[in-house]
Amino acid sequence: MQRLRVRYAKRGRLRFTSHRDFSRAFERAVFRARVPMAYSSGFNPHPRISYAGAAPTGSASEAEFLEIALAEVVDPADVHAQLEEALPDGLDVVAVVDAATLGGGSLADGLQASRWRIDTTAPPDEARAAVGTFLAEESVLVERMTKKGLREFDCRAAVVSLEMLDGPTGAASLDLVLRHTVPAVRPDDVLTGVRRLTDLDTGRAPLLTRTEQGPLDEERGTVGDPFATATDG
Q1: Which residues pair with 98 in a beta bridge?
Q2: How far from the centroid of its chain's Cα atoms is residue 12's Cα?
Q3: Domain locations in the chain?
Q4: Are 60 and 207 in contact (CB under 8 A)?
Q5: Which residues of the chain register pLDDT less than 70?
Q6: What residues contact residue 131 under an 8 Å CB cut-off, 6+ apart?
Q7: How does pLDDT run across 111-168, given as a tens digit for each residue?
Q8: 2-110 with 113-223: one CATH topology?
Q9: Is residue 181 packed enough to be buried (19+ CB in 10 Å), middle (13-18) or exposed (0-12)?
C-alpha cells in the first residue's frame, strides 16, 4: 500500500470551510479524480484518509496536511494534478509527496508547531506595547468553550515567539509561532490573552493565516518544512 502526504491551502472565502466540510469535499474530489484509494473494511467502507493539525474554521492557511492510502503505486505528481483539478478554487493543493521518502514517523509527529500571521486594526505602537506586556508574563490564563464545556488554560506557555511585522499600513500585523500542545492553543486564544492584560482593541475579526506548520527547532524558534526531505513528484 502506498501512502501519499498532501499539503493544501485554504484561501479566500474558503477559509470559512469547516474541517467536516473540507473532508467531504476532499472525499468527493478523490472520487472524481479517480485516485486509486485504499478503503477501510466493514459494511460502510470509507477512503483511508488521515487528517492532522487542521486550522480553526474562519482562519486561512497555507500549510494544511493530510495523508491518503492508495491501493496501487502512482506518481505523486499525477495525483497532485488530479486533485488540483477536482477541488474548488480556494482549496488548493500545494504539494504531494510519497510518505516513504520522508523517513519514519507519522504525519502528526512532524507537525509540532505553527507560524501564524495575525492582521489586526490596532495601532502599531499600542500593539507593540501590548505584545511586550504579554511576553513579560510567565502565565496567561484564558477560557474557551470546548466540546467538554468551558475550559481554562494557559495560552502563554504555547507561545514560542510573538513579534510585530513591518508593514506599510497603519494597522498592526503580528508574527506568532505556537507550539502544538494539549489542549491546543489557537492564535485567537493568544489575542484573548493579550486583550485580557492590556485592553488592546484588535478589531472585530482579525484575519488569521497559518503560513507554516511542521517540526519545531527549539533553539532557533523556527518552524520547519515536514516535506523537506522530498520533492513533489
Answers
A1: 4
A2: 15
A3: 2-110, 113-223
A4: yes
A5: 167-168, 229-233
A6: 162, 163, 164, 174, 194
A7: 999 999 999 999 999 999 999 999 999 999 999 988 788 889 999 999 999 999 976 6
A8: yes
A9: middle
Q: Cα–Cα distances in Å, from 165 out to 55, 59, 100, 103, 179?
A: 22, 19, 37, 35, 20
> Which CATH fold topology does 113-223 show?
Alpha-Beta Plaits (3.30.70)
Rounded CA separation 115/225 (Å): 11
CATH number at 2-110: 3.30.70.580
Contacts by 43-48 with C-beta closer than 8 Å and gap 24+? none
Question: Counting Cβ atoms within 10 Å, is residue 170 exposed (0-12), middle (13-18) or buried (19+)?
Answer: exposed
Residue type, 227: F
In whole angstroms, give the CA distance from residue 118 to residue 115. Answer: 10
Quick one: angle between helices 187-198 and 124-135, nearest 10?
100
The amino acid sitting at 40 is S
Q: Is this prediction's pTM over 0.70?
A: yes
| C-alpha cell belonging to residue 5 | 502526504
Contact yes or no for 189/125 (Cβ under 8 A) = no
CA-CA distances (angstroms) from residue 203 to 27, 124, 125, 154, 200?
36, 13, 15, 23, 9
